[in-house]
Amino acid sequence: MKAFLSVCSFLVFVLHLTQGCPWMQHKFQQYSKKYLILLEEMGGKVTEDSVGVHFPEELYKLAKKSEPEKLSWFVAQVLEEVSELLDSDLDDADWDEKKVKDFMSTLDTQLDGTLSCVGSKTRRNKRLHLYFKKLRNETLGKIEDKTQAWELIRKEVHNHLRRVNHLASIHI
User: Fold this and answer.
1) Whose CA is closest to 157, among 43, 39, 76?
2) Fewer CB within 10 Å: C terminus or N terminus of the chain?
3) Is the pLDDT of residue 130 over 70?
4) Which pLDDT belongs to residue 9?
5) Cβ contacts of 39 within 8 Å, gap of 6 or more
6) Ramachandran sector of residue 118 (left: φ over 0; alpha: ψ -120 to 50; beta: rest)
C-alpha cells in the first residue's frame, strides 16, 4: 500500500512539473488584472516624476531566462517585496482606503497562489531585496512631501506588477 501511495505521489508530482502550475496558468492573470486596476484607481493619476532609483531591469532579464520554478520564485519575491513596502503607515498617502485594502488582499492572494507553484524554498534574491530597500529609503526616507513619496512608490509598484504579469504570461 505504501508503495502504491508513493507511486501515486510521484506521478502527481511529475504531472505537476509537466503540466505547470494551475495557479500560474489559470488564476495569475485574473488576479494581476484585478490588482493593477485597484492600484490605478486607489490614487489619482500616476505621476510622471522619476523615482531616482534605477529599475532592476537586469534582474527581470535574468528571470525571463530562468526555468519556470525559479521564475515563480522571482515573481513571488517581487509580490512579497511589494506587500512589505506597502505594509506601512499609509496615512500620508492620499489613497482610497477601501481600494488599498482590496488591493492588499488581492496581492496577498496572488502571493499565496504563486507560492503554491514552487516546490522548495530558495534564497531571496539579495539584489532585488536591496533594490526595494533603496526604493523605500530614497522616497519615504528623503522626500519631505510624503504624499508625493507614496505616489512615486505607487508608480514603481505599478511598473513591477506589470512586469511580473508579463513574465508570467509569456513564460509560465
Assistant:
1) 39
2) N
3) yes
4) 42
5) 103, 154, 157, 158, 161
6) beta
pTM of the model: 0.86
Task: Report pLDDT digits (tens) over 41-59.
Answer: 999 888 888 888 999 999 9
> 94 is written with which cell numbers?
492620499
> Please, are residues 103 and 161 in contact by the beta-carbon 8 Å criterion?
no
Query: What is the SS3 string spanning the chain?
Result: CHHHHHHHHHHHHHHHHHHCCHHHHHHHHHHHHHHHHHHHHCCCCCCCCCCCCCCCHHHHHHHHHCCHHHHHHHHHHHHHHHHHHHCCCCCCCCCCHHHHHHHHHHHHHHHHHHHCCCCCCCCCCHHHHHHHHHHHHHHCCCCCCHHHHHHHHHHHHHHHHHHHHHHHHHHC
Kindly give, in sequence order, each residue whose CB lies less than 8 Å from that of residue 115, ignoring residues fewer than 6 positions away: 76
CA 83/CA 85 separation, integer angstroms: 5
CB 62 within 8 A of CB 165: no
> For residues 47 and 132, what is the distance between their CA atoms, to the nearest angstrom?
19
